[in-house]
Structure formats: structure tokens, C-alpha cells
């Protein structure tokens, strides 16, 4: 098992304080929040406290938070639920979205809507002129992620929202990768819906949320007992929700440190990468502080990930965060990167637990691994 973890955009370790907050709800406090008795009331109270913590972390009101089981569910809910209640028209998603946004749009296309992609430039920035052009046709929803999971590129969501609002079109943003890494403000951004997820910020897997402007008419994905004001039926995962709330509070507190610490590691890494002649993707974009995505010529990304794992470093390849496929990253292809170069991509994503010594060790190991792989290729040729 790899000993140095550089894959925090995939998932993060549960923070000790988060586990501590969750423990009572995993052990003795087992009430169902819809029950009227003391156990139920205490579970309800815990959920409402978490709702406030989550809302505070994203500049929203607590009545705007709908808890889900994951970011994937919240994205499916937003795209499907918003479009379903409108006349069939276009759903516009950027070409770099996570599949849990683009695939629901394609699923809606099979039901009669039209799914269209907004292009990005070579730095991974959404082309707002293209969005403006697409918005000339009747549109139900624009969904553009706040920060990309692979390159870390941060989109100009205020501008995107302003363009959509001019046409009275609703906007959703997937802020799963942005939360805890940059300032996220639901109200200031002007979006109508925003997705966040617990396990990317030191919370447990099993909780996410859709932050929703109350004026938006949305159809639930799950029908049943009417939990979450009828928007998401199913008995709440209390421990996970409590953990999510605590993780949100900690992430907000830790944000300035996260930004300065991880950006210094990232910059240090990229100086070393440049010496090794890496191609760094999206380097000119405004990016998440903790993310670096790069490739080396004639080196396969999956092979590099496996070789680095063997010498003690957990990193991600281009396609790893969304599927088990070995296809080149759709994000890089959308940026116009050649498929052969894209196949070489690997990603490092830091947290405050990582150190500059680890980065130095990584660079040394990387140089050696590259040499070995190139030697093997030369022998095979
Ligand atoms: N959106 C983005 C940008 C992601 O990176 C991920 C996870 O990798 C998701 C959504 C899905 O979130 P979850 O793992 O909570 O389903």
C-alpha cells in the first residue's frame, strides 16, 4: 500500500473531529428524525445543526440545503429534477463536466430534451462567447462546474450566471471540488443550484447536498416518506450528515491555511516537473491551489501511476476519478490536447497533511521511475 497520499481530489481521510461528532449517532443515538419521541427529536436537532453548518460554509440559508447521499446524486437531482419540470428545451453543460452531470443530461436527451456542450479553451476555461451563442435557442438549464477535478481550473461562474440570467435561464454549478479549497458563496454567485459533497473535505462518504434557491421548481428523484421537505425521501443518514456538517465547519476554518499551504507545495512540485520536462495542463488558468495535472512524452499515465504506487506514492491518472476506463481524459480532449499526450496524464492533489519533504521525495522517485520506464520502452522498441 502506498504510504504518501497525493490524491485528495478523489477522496480524503475522515478528520478525527468529524469522527468524534459522528460517533454518538453511530452508537447510542439511533433515533429516526421523523419520530416524535426524544430519540427522534435529538436526531432531528442534529440534522438541523448540520444543515446550518453546511449552509454557513457556502454562503447560503439553511432552508436552501437539501441533503443527498453523494455529489453524484445531487448532480443527477439538479439536472434531471430542474429540466423535468420545464418544457423540453436545451440542457447546456460544459465539455469538462464530471460524468454525473453530463450523463444525466444525455439521459434527458433520450427523453426528448437536447443536451449540448459548451466548449472550453486550451487553458480549460469555459468559452463564454460559445455559451452566449447557444443561449439564443430555448434553454432550460446551464450547468457549469465551479472547479474542475482534473486540472483544477476555476470557472467565471458569475459571468456565466449573468449571461444565463439575461435569458431567464436557470444555472447549476458543481462545486464538489471547490468546497474547502476556495471561497464558495452560493448567494453571491447568483446560481440557482449548487452541488457539494462531504468526502472531498474530510467528511464521510455517504453525504452530499444540493443547495437550492427556493424559487426553483424541482422534481424529486426519490419519492417516498417526504423527508427533506418532500425533495429527497428516505430516512436520513444522520451520522454522515452530522459528519458533513462538522467537516464543513472545519473546512471553512482551515480555508486560508489550505490555500497557502497547498499552493506552495503545488508550485514547488511544478518547478521540479518543469525540470523533468513535463507538460502541465491548465497551468495558465486560475486554478485550485492543491491540484497539478501533467504528462511526460511517450509515458503512459496508467503505467506511471502503477510504477509510482509501487515506490510509495498514491496519485491519480487522468481518467481514474470518474471511471475505470483507460480512455484519455475527456477534459484534456476538450482542451484540444492530443490523445496520445492525454493518455500520459497524471494528477497530484494535495491536502494540508502533505509536506514539502514528501514533494521532494516524490520528485526524486519520479525521475528514477521515468528513467526506468524509458529504458524499458527503448528495450522493447
Ligand atoms: N463532481 C465532481 C467535480 C467530482 O470530482 C466528483 C467526485 O469525484 C463528483 C462530482 C461526485 O461526487 P461523489 O463522489 O460525492 O458522488
Quick structural summary:
The chain is an alpha/beta fold and about 375 residues long. The protein has helices at about 15-25, 40-55, 70-85, 100-110, 130-135, 155-165, 185-190, 240-275, 300-310, 330-335, 340, 355-380, and strands at about 5, 65-70, 90-95, 115-120, 140-145, 170-175, 195, 210, 280, 290-295, 315, 315, 345-350. The chain is globular, with a radius of gyration of 21 Å.
The unreliable regions are none
Rough outline: globular
Mean pLDDT level: 96
Query: How widely separated are the two ends?
Result: 32 Å
- Compute the number of helices: 12
User: Biggest sheet: strands side by side, in what order?
Assistant: 2-8-7-6-5-3-4
SSE class: alpha/beta
Q: Could you give a short account of the major beta sheet?
A: 7 strands, mixed
What is the H-and-E element order? EHHEHEHEHEHEHEEHEEHEEHHEH
Helix content range of the residues, please?
40-55%
Radius of gyration from CA coordinates? 21 Å
What would you say this structure looks like, in words?
The chain has 381 residues and is α/β, with parallel strands linked by helices. Helices cover 42% and strands 13% of the residues. The protein is built from twelve helices and 13 strands. The strands form three sheets. Strands 2-8-7-6-5-3-4 form a seven-stranded mixed beta sheet, with helices on both faces. Helix 3 runs parallel beside helix 4 and helix 8 (238-275) packs across helix 12. The longest helix is centred in the last third of the chain and has 38 residues, at 238-275. Bound molecules: pyridoxal-5'-phosphate.
Amino acid at each position: 500500500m502506498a504510504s504518501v497520499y497525493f490524491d485528495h481530489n478523489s477522496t480524503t481521510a475522515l478528520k478525527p473531529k468529524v469522527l468524534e461528532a459522528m460517533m454518538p449517532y453511530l452508537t447510542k443515538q439511533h433515533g429516526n428524525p421523523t419520530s416524535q419521541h426524544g430519540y427522534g427529536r435529538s436526531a432531528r436537532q442534529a440534522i438541523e445543526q448540520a444543515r446550518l453548518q453546511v449552509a454557513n460554509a457556502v454562503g447560503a440559508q439553511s432552508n436552501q440545503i437539501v441533503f443527498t447521499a453523494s455529489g453524484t446524486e445531487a448532480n443527477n437531482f439538479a439536472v434531471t429534477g430542474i429540466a423535468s419540470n420545464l418544457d423540453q428545451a436545451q440542457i447546456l453543460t460544459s465539455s469538462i463536466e464530471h460524468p454525473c452531470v453530463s450523463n444525466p443530461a444525455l439521459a434527458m436527451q433520450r427523453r426528448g430534451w437536447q443536451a449540448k456542450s459548451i466548449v472550453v479553451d486550451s487553458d480549460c476555461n469555459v468559452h463564454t462567447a460559445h455559451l452566449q451563442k447557444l443561449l439564443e435557442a430555448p434553454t432550460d438549464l446551464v450547468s457549469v462546474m465551479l472547479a474542475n477535478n482534473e486540472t483544477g481550473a476555476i470557472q467565471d461562474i458569475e459571468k456565466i450566471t449573468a449571461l444565463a440570467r439575461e435569458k431567464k435561464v436557470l444555472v447549476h454549478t458543481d462545486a464538489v471540488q471547490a468546497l474547502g479549497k476556495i471561497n464558495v458563496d452560493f448567494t453571491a454567485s447568483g446560481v440557482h443550484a449548487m452541488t457539494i459533497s462531504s468526502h472531498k473535505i474530510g467528511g464521510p462518504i455517504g453525504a452530499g447536498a444540493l443547495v437550492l434557491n427556493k424559487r426553483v421548481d424541482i422534481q424529486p428523484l426519490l419519492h417516498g416518506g417526504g423527508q427533506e421537505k418532500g425533495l429527497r425521501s428516505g430516512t436520513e443518514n444522520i451520522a454522515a450528515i452530522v459528519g458533513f456538517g462538522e467537516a464543513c465547519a472545519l473546512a471553512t476554518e482551515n480555508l486560508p491555511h489550505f490555500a497557502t499551504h497547498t499552493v506552495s507545495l503545488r508550485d514547488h512540485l511544478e518547478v521540479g516537473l518543469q525540470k523533468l520536462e513535463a507538460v502541465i495542463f491548465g497551468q495558465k488558468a486560475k486554478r485550485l491551489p492543491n491540484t497539478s495535472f501533467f504528462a511526460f512524452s511517450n509515458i503512459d499515465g496508467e503505467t506511471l501511476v502503477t510504477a509510482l504506487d509501487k515506490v510509495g506514492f498514491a496519485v491519480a491518472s487522468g481518467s481514474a476519478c470518474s471511471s475505470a476506463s483507460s480512455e484519455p481524459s475527456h477534459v484534456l480532449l476538450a482542451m484540444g490536447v492530443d490523445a496520445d499526450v492525454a493518455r500520459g496524464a497524471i494528477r497530484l492533489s494535495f491536502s494540508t497533511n502533505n509536506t514539502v519533504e514528501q514533494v521532494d521525495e516524490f520528485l526524486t522517485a519520479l525521475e528514477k521511475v521515468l528513467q526506468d520506464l524509458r529504458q524499458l520502452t527503448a528495450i522493447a522498441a
